[in-house]
Write a structure and sequence with these properties.
Blueprint lengths: L34 H7 L4 E2 L8 E7 L3 E9 L3 E3 L3 E10 L8 E8 L4 E4 L9 E2 L2 E2 L11 E9 L8 E10 L2 E2 L2 E3 L8 E9 L12 E5 L16 H4 L2 E2 L4 E2 L11 E9 L3 E10 L19 E8 L9 E6 L5 E6 L23 E7 L11 E9 L16 E10 L2 E4 L16 E6 L31
Parallel strand pairs: 4-14, 15-27
Antiparallel strand pairs: 1-10, 2-3, 2-13, 3-5, 5-10, 6-7, 6-11, 8-9, 11-12, 11-14, 16-18, 17-26, 18-19, 19-24, 20-21, 20-25, 21-22, 23-24, 25-26, 25-27
């Protein structure tokens, strides 16, 4: 949906560190949570008043109840990619909170994408029973709580700065910030750091282009997931999908694939051929707009304007169970409600028709899967934000295709660290053509006949 990476807060999961590219480490304790015992055990982190050194002043006011006084960061100005960082947050309580509130911390890169989630890291936050050791719901009015955290900045960081964002959450809610530096998602801006030692820029930054031919008037496509009609054999193909972060051939991510595209007066035909050795569905057939990106799915992003400005674009996902997630967005990742949605205008429907053919068994780990094929028709009338439907021959749209697993994936056009899977300026270009139309003298068309390279394991890039 390559809406972030979607790393959601789970109070029952402890972590030493949790990145986009690695699983959270650590485990929950079986002991029950006792606030009095926790306060006694953590008395060295509780003060009657603010210490003289609180680092850089922040002054973020959480609904008149808790204030983030300051933040101390070591290193304090510039952090090296792959370097260990110590963060100390100073919280002061004006009014007690009701039960169930916890702390979170997100590290975001210069494009605003989350690269680390360290919610349950540190003495106050390690999991005891079903909650953090000393969460803000257990804090006493007038006291100051010293919240120490450690994290390692990923060596793969792509931007020249990061921000440390923190806040207080419960269920689907975040405590509102009424004053002080914060973003639109009620996350206080604790610190901004420069980044050094970043990897070299990708060698190839071009936007791929695909010239997609219109079906002849007497040609029909049967939606059965087989892609065996003659029209598919000659259809424009993306060639093997690539590493979404670098644009290099995929050598590590555990899913590969390619996509073929056709069009008619009725709509867009897409055919995904996906290599996947362990197909996971994981949803009920009755689920409405299930979060397919958290397991296995294919995804299509569509910006009909063709200008890549992220205004009025669409997201469509179809998984091996032939379940669909579809939504329409007004702007880059907007609207959305963290952490569990809705994401975009989920009331929008693509009204698509689709079929999936499996080579293996979904949600069964003791067999040998080879992959799946998705065949779909998305009617033009579903793209109500488009200027002209069907598009005029010779015009172009911005589109991207992904094959996904566990909120990461491979893509037709790589994002190159410039955002998440929604970044329309990195979508490829599809030029709608008719049979016999001449190609331009120089074309950046993407094509390929080689099979996708084999996959083993990978660190996924985040889709949201």
């Amino acid at each position: 949906m390559a809406r972030t990476e979607r790393l959601v807060h789970r109070a029952g999961v402890a972590a030493l560190a949790c990145t986009l590219f690695t699983a959270c480490l650590g485990g929950s304790s079986s002991e029950s949570h006792d606030p009095k015992q926790a306060s006694a055990r953590l008395k060295n982190f509780i003060f009657a008043s603010a210490p003289s050194d609180i680092g850089a002043a922040v002054g973020a006011d959480f609904d008149g109840k808790i204030t983030l006084l300051g933040a101390k960061v070591d290193p304090s100005a510039t952090v090296h990619a792959g370097e260990r960082v110590k963060l100390t947050l100073y919280w002061q309580v004006q009014k007690p909170l009701d039960a169930g509130w916890s702390l979170f911390t997100h590290i975001v890169d210069g494009s605003g994408e989350r690269v680390l989630n360290v919610d349950n890291v540190g003495p106050l936050r390690e999991i005891h029973g079903a909650s953090q050791a000393l969460p803000p719901s257990d804090w006493e009015a007038g006291k100051v709580y010293v919240d120490e955290q450690m994290f390692t900045l990923p060596a793969s960081i792509k931007t020249d700065k990061i921000q440390i964002l923190t806040g207080i959450w419960k269920g689907d809610d975040r405590l509102k910030i009424v004053a002080g530096p914060h973003d639109s998602s009620n996350r206080a801006i604790a610190a901004t750091l420069g980044v050094s030692g970043r990897p070299a820029a990708p060698k190839n930054t071009r936007i791929p282009e695909l010239r997609v031919e219109k079906l002849g008037p007497n040609l029909k496509i049967k939606l059965d997931g087989k892609l065996d009609e003659p029209a598919w054999q000659t259809a424009a193909s993306t060639g093997p999908l690539v590493d979404v972060r670098t644009g290099d051939p995929n050598q590590a991510f555990p899913v590969n694939g390619d996509v073929k595209v056709l069009w008619s007066d009725e709509g867009i035909y897409v055919g995904f051929s996906i290599a996947d050795t362990d197909m996971i569905g994981g949803f009920k057939k009755t689920d409405k707009d299930p979060h397919l990106w958290t397991h296995d799915t294919v995804e299509m992003m569509v910006d009909p304007d063709g200008d890549g400005d992220n205004k009025d674009y669409y997201e469509i996902q179809i998984n091996p169970q032939n379940l669909v997630f579809d939504s329409q967005f007004d702007d880059y990742n907007q609207p959305k409600t963290e952490p569990n949605g809705p994401f975009g205008h989920q009331e929008w429907s693509a009204n698509l028709k689709s079929a999936v053919a499996l080579d293996g068994t979904v949600d069964k780990s003791d067999d040998e899967d080879r992959g799946y094929t998705v065949e779909a028709l998305i009617p033009w009338k579903s793209f109500s934000k488009a200027a002209k439907l069907p598009p005029e021959p010779g015009s172009s749209w911005r589109v991207n295709f992904y094959a996904m697993k566990n909120n990461g994936g491979v893509s037709w056009s790589p994002i190159l660290g410039q955002g998440n899977f929604h970044k329309a300026s990195r979508f490829g270009r599809i030029v709608w053509t008719e049979k016999g139309a001449p190609a331009p003298a120089t074309s950046a068309s993407a094509s390929g006949s080689k099979p996708a390279p084999s996959a083993s394991s990978a660190a996924p890039a985040s889709s949201r």
